Amino acid sequence: MKAAKFKEDALAKNLKLFRKKKNWSQTELAKNAGTTLTHINRLETGKSNPSIEIVQKIALALEVSIDDLVSQNDNSKEIKFENQAFYEKIKLLDTFSEEERNAVNIVIDSILTKKKMLNLLKEHGG
User: What sequence ranges are listed for the domain HTH cro/C1-type (predicted)?
Assistant: First the structure.
């Protein structure tokens, strides 16, 4: 099948981003997409231009749309923070497993609930 013409840098960046969101190694992605580790590595480094068939298989394995995979838009929807150290920690969440992200979410929810409770107590003279 003929190779599709994609912006290699967008595909490489998005492929790596979505793979890490699933907490998969390149080997796991290759297995789930029915391709080779070498091919995944070459795609993530922008050294290979895949066929549309491979892009479809990878998108299916990663559970994303083809558009998400090849789009030049910033799929990470990065938010700018004034506190750079905090921002760097937030970016690391992409490398966490779903279970780890859920645990972080529970901790954050607990902190926010505590803050709301303290604010309510202040408002009501407590």
Answer: 15-69
* Global pTM value: 0.55
Main-chain phi, psi angles of 3, to 5 degrees = -70, 135
What is the domain partition of the chain in residue ranges? Answer: 8-70, 84-123
Helix (DSSP H) and strand (DSSP E) numbers for the chain: 7, 0
> What SS3 state is found at 51?
strand
Q: Which position has the higher pLDDT, 5 or 34?
A: 34
The greatest distance separating any two alpha carbons of the chain, rounded to the nearest whole angstrom, comes to: 72
By the 10 Å C-beta count (0-12 exposed, 13-18 middle, 19+ buried), 78 is classed as exposed
Domain 8-70 of CATH type 3.30.360.10: no
Q: Given the structure tokens 């920690």, which residue do they identify? A: 89
4 versus 119: which is more confidently predicted?
A: 119
